[in-house]
From TrEMBL:
Molecular function GO labels: ATP binding; pantoate-beta-alanine ligase activity
Quaternary data: Homodimer.
EC numbers on record: 6.3.2.1
Active-site positions on this chain: H37 (proton donor)
Lineage, uppermost ranks: Bacteria, Bacillati, Bacillota, Bacilli, Bacillales
Pathways per UniProt: Cofactor biosynthesis; (R)-pantothenate biosynthesis; (R)-pantothenate from (R)-pantoate and beta-alanine: step 1/1
GO biological process, one term: pantothenate biosynthetic process
Ligand binding ((R)-pantoate): Q61, Q153
Main location: cytoplasm
Record's protein name: Pantothenate synthetase
Key words of the record: ATP-binding, Cytoplasm, Ligase, Nucleotide-binding, Pantothenate biosynthesis
Family according to the record: Belongs to the pantothenate synthetase family.
Organism: Alicyclobacillus tolerans
Subcellular location: Cytoplasm
Binding-site residues for ATP, renumbered to this chain: 30-37, 147-150, 176, 184-187
Length: 300
């Protein structure tokens, strides 16, 4: 695995790979890697023959008062994990390399970015979209891989790429979970033992919402209420939001039909945790049971 810290050297390595006919897959991350990231790299490796991972804790997606300065970092462990899972190039720029001067260009998708996490993190997705655009321009991959755990981020990146005709296909990868259902996340390290025991209730709440849909619930507000009250029963959790939205535009779903997302954000101790279920619901027309499918890996 090669490691680059500059954009120029990254481009040189990529030019060599492209000249050798390699198909480039890209996995952008903020480091402190876990099995969720490893899965993205493995999926990328199955479909591409040169996998690039970036590690950059992007300051512009953190608001003042958020956890930029305490965001967990472990460069050596990250390097070892990436070598094991088959990354060919690790791009690890510092802030000066990515922002030699403050960026005066910003990419905004206000209709998508103001929903869900955007209500408590109003500048977050502008930072994400802009840095992802920069990274995609630097790496110019054929495929880029993002986790479905960050469902709003995935929807925003997909839409940006479509609207601005980036020559890349964005692939969503299903959420990797701990055995007890908690979505793997770098921020889980903020949880103390007791909070860690409570955290799987987030997934349990989402599963209750899904079970209600499977049992025939047709009212999105009722599904939302079921998830909400399960979370409310957990004394340590503070709910940021519970929403049932359409995946296409992240607007509240008017009905339980088609591609929808049950999405949750909670505060638990020092951590703000998000999770979601992305479902495809096919309502029956002639008395058959409704079909509720988990949306899987995007078809490549
Ligand atoms: N459990 C997971 N399963 C699948 N993909 C994941 C998982 N966790 C993170 N990812 C994906 O890895 C990529 C990099 O994410 P990031 O480095 O922010 O990790 P994270 O664990 O989500 O961190 P954070 O705790 O800040 O949310 C994103 O595309 C994200 O969706
Ligand atoms: C996509 C990303 C690397 C942009 O900084 C970040 O938001 C993340 O790790 O999900
Ligand atoms: N994976 C999301 C990055 C963030 O919360 O800043």
């Amino acid at each position: 695995m090669r490691i680059t810290c500059t954009i120029q050297e990254t481009r040189e390595r990529l030019a060599e790979a492209k000249a050798a006919g390699k198909k480039i897959g890209f996995v952008p991350t903020m480091g402190y890697l876990h099995e969720g990231h490893a899965r993205l790299v493995e999926v990328a490796g199955k479909h591409c023959d040169f996998v690039v991972v970036s590690i950059f804790v992007n300051p512009t997606q953190f608001a003042p008062g958020e956890d930029l300065s305490t965001y967990p970092r472990d460069a050596e462990r990250d390097e070892a994990l990436l070598k094991k899972v088959g990354c060919q190039l690790l791009f690890r720029p510092d802030e000066k390399e990515m922002y030699p001067t403050p960026s005066l260009t910003r990419i905004e998708l206000p209709e998508l970015a103001s929903q869900l996490c955007g209500k408590s993190r109003p500048t977050h997705f502008q930072g994400v979209a802009t840095v992802v655009a920069k990274l995609l321009h630097i790496v110019q991959p054929e495929f880029a891989f993002f986790g479905m755990k960050d469902g709003q981020q995935l929807a925003i990146v997909k839409r940006m790429v479509e609207d601005l005709n980036f020559p890349v296909q964005i692939i969503g990868v299903p959420t990797v979970r701990e055995e007890d259902g908690l979505a793997k996340s770098s921020r889980n390290v903020y949880l103390n033992e007791h909070q860690r025991q409570t955290a799987p209730q987030i997934y349990q709440a989402l599963l209750k919402g899904k079970a209600a849909i499977e049992a025939g619930e047709t009212d999105p507000n009722r599904v939302r209420q079921i998830i909400y009250s399960h979370l409310q029963d957990q004394p340590e959790l503070r709910i940021d939001y519970v929403e049932v939205v359409r995946l296409s535009d992240l607007q509240p779903a008017a009905q339980i039909e088609g591609d929808i997302m049950l999405a949750v954000a909670v505060y638990l101790g020092k951590a703000r945790l998000i999770d979601n279920l992305q479902l495809h619901v096919k309502n029956s027309t002639s008395g058959q049971r409704r079909q509720v499918l988990d949306k899987g890996l995007d078809i490549l």
